[in-house]
Design brief:
The chain has a domain at about 35-265: Hypothetical protein af1432 (Orthogonal Bundle), CATH 1.10.3210. The chain has helices at about 5-15, 40-50, 55, 75-95, 100-105, 115-125, 135-150, 155-160, 175-195, 205-215, 215-230, 240-260, 265, 270-285, 290-300, 305-315, 315-330. The protein is flat and about 75 Å long. Helices cover about 60% and strands about 0% of the residues. It has about 325 residues and is an all-alpha fold. It is built from 17 helices and no strands.
Length: about 325
């Protein structure tokens, strides 16, 4: 009797594109496991990431706006969900593997530091071996989750997580979808947050860009997703047309100048950077204060600097602030 998983795998073979990454033909996991009777392997990976502690912590990590005064600004969690939604829309339209795209999207940023890219730059500056959040995301799923066991994800999901940066290239079309969906998501929602915060008005976008991709934030998102689908249909490569790709690059440049380096939005980042550097210095000098997992890894030969980065990058914004205050601010002493 065939299992539900086998029937789902058969359905993939029947309806997905010839370029899709089929669950039944996955390159597998580093540690062999019995397959699930219900879920194909990429759906299983998606669930493992969703239920991980690292994924849950994303809700209290900065996306772009540091400690904004309002409930509707994006966090690293909502960014991840929007990336996943973009990726599923594109994958479905192109008849590619939605489960694989969603699993990669869910895992792509779980290695991000507190305070967004400010925290990443701080660790990059102080750690001799460097720090990149995509590499940390891979390290989490391979080495750190489940008290050091890792999640034992398939190679396709891990490849997509590692290679979601614009300077890299995933080996699957689903990974390529997430790579573009990530950029689309942050341009869209960062502009939305900038509008909400009064940093920009939609009319501030240069006319030469608006003429190509539309005048409103919603029009941009629609244009980008439609263009990827139309341009990539019938091809193993996921890409934008030249005109739209050029317009998106101009929009990114505009966003960096108007939002990502804007002192109104980024005025507190210097403090966050120094906070992360101070935490790194403290734990490097006091490794006995690291969690048990990191202490065990040091005994097993992992570099101290890497274990310190593991701990700090896992922190939420609130926890990092609390630890910094605990370590640096004098406490009152009771008077009897």
């Amino acid at each position: 009797m065939t299992t539900i998983r086998e029937r789902l795998e058969k359905r993939e073979e029947e309806i997905l594109s010839p370029y899709a990454t089929l669950s039944s033909r996955s390159e597998g996991r580093d540690r062999e496991e019995d397959p699930c009777d219900l879920r194909p392997c990429f759906q299983r990976d998606r669930d493992r990431i969703l239920y991980s502690k690292s994924f849950r912590r994303l809700k209290d990590k900065t996306q772009v706006f540091l400690t904004p005064d309002g409930d509707h600004y994006r966090t690293r969690m909502t960014h991840t969900l929007e990336v996943a939604q973009n990726a599923r829309t594109i994958a479905r339209a192109l008849r590619l593997n939605e489960d694989l795209a969603e699993a990669i999207a869910f895992g792509h940023d779980i290695g991000h530091t507190p305070f967004g890219h400010a925290g990443e730059r701080a660790l990059q500056a102080v750690c001799p071996s460097g720090f990149r959040h995509n590499e940390q995301s891979l390290r989490i799923v391979e080495r750190l989750e489940k008290d050091g066991e890792g999640l034992n994800l398939t190679r396709e999901v891990r490849d997509g997580i590692l290679n979601h940066e614009i300077s890299t290239r995933p080996s699957t079309p689903e990974g390529q979808i997430v790579r573009l969906s990530d950029k689309i998501a942050y341009i869209h929602h960062d502009m939305d947050d900038a509008l909400r915060g009064g940093i920009l008005k939609e009319g501030d976008v240069p006319q030469e860009i608006a003429e190509v991709i539309g005048a409103t934030n919603g029009e941009w998102l629609d244009t980008f997703i439609h263009d990827i689908i139309v341009t990539s249909e019938g091809s193993p490569e996921i890409r934008m047309s030249g005109e739209i790709a050029e317009a998106m690059q101009k929009l990114r440049t505009f966003m960096f100048e108007a939002v990502y380096t804007n002192p109104v939005a980024k005025g507190e980042e210097g403090k966050a950077t120094e906070l992360v550097k101070a935490l790194y210095g403290y734990y490097y000098e006091h490794p006995e204060k690291l969690p048990r997992l990191q202490q065990r890894m040091i005994v097993d030969g992992e570099p101290l600097e890497r274990c310190v980065c593991d701990h700090i990058s896992s922190m939420t914004d609130r926890y990092a602030i609390a630890r910094y205050e605990e370590l640096t601010i004098p406490k009152s002493w009771p008077v009897f």
